[in-house]
C-alpha cells in the first residue's frame, strides 16, 4: 500500500505539472501540447486511475479549451484520449513482458472485458452505444452543414466520450480506494469551481440579472455554473450526513460550495438542494433538522430581501415565465416529430426559425428546452425519452431506498451519497439543462457509476 500511495502521489504531481504547462505554453505551439499529451499517456500507462481522476476534476474547464494552433481541445478530452492510448500501451507491454506474447495480451483483454460485464456496465454501455448510433443516424440526414457540425460536437461530448469514460472506469477501477479517489477528484474539481466563483464575487465580476450580480466562475452563465456545482455539493452533503462526519475541512468545503450556489441566485439549484434535503431528512437527528430548517428559512428570507425580483420573478419577461413558453414550443416540436426527433443539438436550429413563441422572443437563441425529458425527446426521439423516463424512475427508486435505510448500516455511504446527488441533479434538470453539455453529461455518468456499480451491490 505505501508503494501504491507513493506512485499515485507522483502521478498526481505529474498531472498537475502537465496541466499547468498546457495553460502557460504558447497557444500557437502544437508541439508543446503534443509533448504534454505524451506525458499524460505515460502517466496513464502507469497510473490510469490518476488520469481518470484528473479527467473528472477538469470537466468545468471545457469552457476554457487548450489551443494547439487552430485546434481547441478541452483538458478533460485530452486526458481521456491519453488514458485510452495509455491503456492500450499498458495491455501491450504487460502482455509482452510476461513472455506469453499474444496469449498474454488476449488474457488481459478477457479480464478487462469481464470487468465490463456487470449489470451496470451492460446497461450503461448498451444504452450509450444505442443512443450514439441513433444520434449519428439522425445527423446524417441533416442538410445544414453548420447544424450537422454542432450536432457532431454534442454527440462527441455527451454520448461518445461518456461511453469511453465508463469503459475506462470499469476497466481500471478495481479497489474501493480507487473508487474513493475518483469521487474525491470530482469533489475537488467542484470545490475549485466554487472558489473561482467566490473570487469573482469578491472582485465584483458576474452577470447582472434581476437586480443582482450573479457569479459564474469558469462558466459563461450563472445557470451553467449552478448546474455543475450543485452535483459535487449534493454529493458532499450526502457523504457528511450519511457518515456523520465531523471533519472541519469537509464542512468548510460544503460551506464554500453552498455559498457559491447562493451567490449564483439559481432557483433550479435551490430546487435540487430541497430534493437532496428530502432524501436525507430521515437521516438527520431532531436537533439537526431544526437547525437545517432554521438555516434554510434565514437564507431564503435573506435572498428574498437582497434579490426580490430574482427570487419572486413576477415579470412576464422573467425566466420562469419564458421557460413555460419554451416548454410549449418544445412540446409542439415533439408533436411534429414524436418518433425520430431532430438530432443532437438541433433544438436551436429548429426552435428559432419555426417554433419560437413571440412572448419568448428574448430567448429565441436558446439551445435547449429547459427540461430533461423535452430535451431528450427533441434530440433523440422516443428512444431518448424512454431512456430518460427509465433513468428518472430508477433514480427516484434508489433515492427512496436511501431514505428508508435511515439508521441502518445496509448501504454503501458513497453510493448512497451519489444517489442523493443524482436525485438533486434530476430535479434541477426538470427545469433547466440536465444533460446535453460536456460537463453535465460526464458528471452525470460519474454519479451513476458511483451510485449503481458499488462493490457488492451489483444486483
3D architecture notes:
The chain is mainly alpha-helical and 459 residues long. The chain folds into 2 domains: 1-117, no CATH class; 118-191 and 219-459, no CATH class. Helices cover 73% and strands 3% of the residues. It has 18 helices and 4 strands. It has helices at residues 2-24, 30-46, 48-57, 75-97, 102-116, 119-140, 145-172, 176-203, 222-243, 248-264, 267-280, 286-306, 308-312, 319-336, 347-355, 372-404, 413-429, 438-452; strands at 66-68, 71-73, 207-209, 212-214. Strands 1-2 form a two-stranded antiparallel ribbon. The protein has a two-stranded antiparallel sheet with strand order 3-4. A hairpin with a 2-residue loop joins strand 3 (207-209) and strand 4. The radius of gyration is 22 Å and the shape is globular. The protein starts with a helix and ends in a 7-residue tail after the last helix.
Summed up, what is this model?
This protein has helices spanning 2-24, 30-46, 48-57, 75-97, 102-116, 119-140, 145-172, 176-203, 222-243, 248-264, 267-280, 286-306, 308-312, 319-336, 347-355, 372-404, 413-429, 438-452, and strands at residues 66-68, 71-73, 207-209, 212-214. By secondary structure, it is an all-alpha fold.
Amino acid at each position: 500500500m505505501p508503494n501504491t500511495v507513493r506512485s499515485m502521489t507522483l502521478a498526481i504531481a505529474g498531472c498537475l505539472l502537465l496541466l499547468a504547462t498546457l495553460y502557460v505554453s504558447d497557444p500557437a505551439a502544437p508541439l508543446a501540447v503534443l509533448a504534454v499529451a505524451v506525458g499524460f499517456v505515460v502517466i496513464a500507462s502507469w497510473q490510469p486511475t490518476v488520469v481518470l481522476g484528473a479527467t473528472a476534476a477538469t470537466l468545468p474547464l471545457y469552457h476554457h479549451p487548450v489551443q494547439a494552433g487552430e485546434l481547441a481541445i478541452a483538458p478533460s478530452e485530452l486526458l481521456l484520449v491519453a488514458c485510452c492510448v495509455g491503456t492500450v500501451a499498458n495491455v501491450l507491454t504487460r502482455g509482452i513482458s510476461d513472455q506469453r506474447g499474444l496469449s498474454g495480451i488476449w488474457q488481459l483483454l478477457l479480464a478487462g472485458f469481464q470487468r465490463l460485464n456487470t449489470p451496470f456496465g451492460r446497461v450503461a454501455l448498451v444504452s450509450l452505444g444505442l443512443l450514439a448510433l441513433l444520434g449519428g443516424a439522425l445527423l446524417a440526414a441533416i442538410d445544414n452543414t453548420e447544424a450537422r457540425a454542432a450536432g457532431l460536437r454534442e454527440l462527441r461530448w455527451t454520448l461518445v466520450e461518456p461511453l469511453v469514460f465508463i469503459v475506462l472506469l470499469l476497466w481500471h477501477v478495481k479497489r474501493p480506494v480507487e473508487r474513493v479517489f475518483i469521487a474525491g477528484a470530482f469533489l475537488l474539481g467542484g470545490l475549485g469551481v466554487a472558489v473561482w466563483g467566490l473570487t469573482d464575487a469578491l472582485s465584483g465580476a458576474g452577470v447582472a440579472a434581476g437586480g443582482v450580480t450573479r457569479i459564474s466562475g469558469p462558466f459563461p452563465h450563472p445557470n451553467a455554473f449552478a448546474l455543475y456545482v450543485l452535483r459535487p455539493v449534493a454529493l458532499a452533503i450526502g457523504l457528511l450526513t450519511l457518515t456523520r462526519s465531523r471533519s472541519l475541512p469537509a464542512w468548510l468545503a460544503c460551506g464554500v460550495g453552498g455559498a457559491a450556489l447562493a451567490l449564483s441566485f439559481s432557483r433550479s439549484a435551490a430546487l435540487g438542494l430541497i430534493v437532496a434535503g428530502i432524501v436525507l431528512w430521515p437521516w438527520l437527528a431532531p436537533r439537526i433538522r431544526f437547525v437545517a430548517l432554521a438555516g434554510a428559512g434565514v437564507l431564503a428570507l435573506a435572498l428574498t430581501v437582497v434579490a426580490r425580483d430574482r427570487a419572486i420573478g413576477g415579470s412576464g419577461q422573467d425566466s420562469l415565465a419564458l421557460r413555460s413558453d419554451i416548454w410549449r414550443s418544445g412540446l409542439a416540436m415533439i408533436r411534429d416529430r414524436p418518433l425520430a426527433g431532430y438530432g443532437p443539438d438541433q433544438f436551436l436550429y429548429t426552435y428559432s426559425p419555426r417554433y419560437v413563441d413571440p412572448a419568448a422572443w428574448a430567448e429565441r437563441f436558446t439551445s435547449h428546452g429547459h427540461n430533461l425529458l423535452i430535451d431528450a425527446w427533441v434530440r433523440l426521439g422516443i428512444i431518448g425519452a424512454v431512456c430518460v423516463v427509465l433513468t428518472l424512475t430508477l433514480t427516484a427508486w434508489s433515492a427512496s431506498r436511501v431514505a428508508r435505510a435511515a439508521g441502518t448500516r445496509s448501504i454503501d455511504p458513497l453510493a448512497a451519497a451519489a444517489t442523493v446527488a443524482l436525485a438533486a441533479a434530476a430535479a434541477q434538470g426538470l427545469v433547466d439543462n440536465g444533460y446535453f453539455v460536456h460537463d453535465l453529461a460526464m458528471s452525470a455518468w460519474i454519479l451513476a457509476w458511483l451510485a449503481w456499480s458499488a462493490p457488492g451491490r451489483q444486483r
